Amino acid sequence: MSKLADNSQTQKLRFKCVCAYDGTDFCGWQSQLNNLSIQDCIETRLSEIFKEKIRIHASGRTDAGVHADAQVFHFDANWKHSDTALLSAIRVSLPESLQISSLKKVSQDFHARYSVVSKRYIYKIYEGQASPKIARYHWSIGNRKLDLDAINDASKLLIGTHDFTSFSASRGTDSKDNPIKTLFQLDAKRNGKVITITTRGSGYMYKMVRMLVGALVDVGLGKFTKADIKKILDAQKRGSYRFATAPSKGLSLNKVFY
User: Fold this and answer.
1) pTM over 0.85
2) DSSP H or E segment with residue 49
3) Which of 6, 22, 40, 63 is catalytic?
4) What is the CA radius of gyration of the chain?
5) For an engineered disulfide with 78, which of 7, 97, 150, 168 has Cβ 3.0 to 4.6 Å away?
6) Beta carbons within 8 Å of 159's beta carbon, 6+ residues apart
7) CA 250 vs CA 69, 196, 210: distances in Å
8) Are 238 and 165 in contact (CB under 8 A)?
């Protein structure tokens, strides 16, 4: 047994971890058979350290191709050594596209998912023909210009507490997912050719951020109006209007608030 992983008669502790990842080559956060998920990478390393199966619990799932600056997860384990020693041990053997940023002991009352107050996502769009390096993390929309005033005006309709069913996709098993969410922030800013759409909300349904972005880009291109966004929202029905779902590569989970 590893000198670091002594499981004998030690009270189980709960650890809160923050991780960052480039989601390009992962099949998403959630463990999947015969696929490379972020959860599988981390759990495999933890199981090597503790010589037993360790299950981790995240603030939520990110889809294939989605990135994270600060995803949060927790796990319970016996550990007699320092937090720094455990953090160093976990980092060994992880792929370069996955980094554990921090680790600390927390109380058993903390839960990475159920203790969440809100989450902030950032979506990156590139106006023009992006180079491969830029295109890896941006939605390149070609030689088109977005009307940010129109986007931000329409975004105001979406801020607040609403039923966001129209801006969600079916996961097949999400029938119990509450469609009532609160958005505290939704806005777009330009820096040269890069458009950044930032949203902070109490929670998000499956593909909700990417669908919000897709609809707002159509507003910025003049395909939809502010009134159309209101109609989509009020319909509370998937497929009520047809609009693009923004590609996953432009999306990052920026921060989880507790």
Assistant:
1) yes
2) helix 38-50
3) 63
4) 20
5) 7
6) 183, 184, 185, 186
7) 13, 10, 9
8) yes
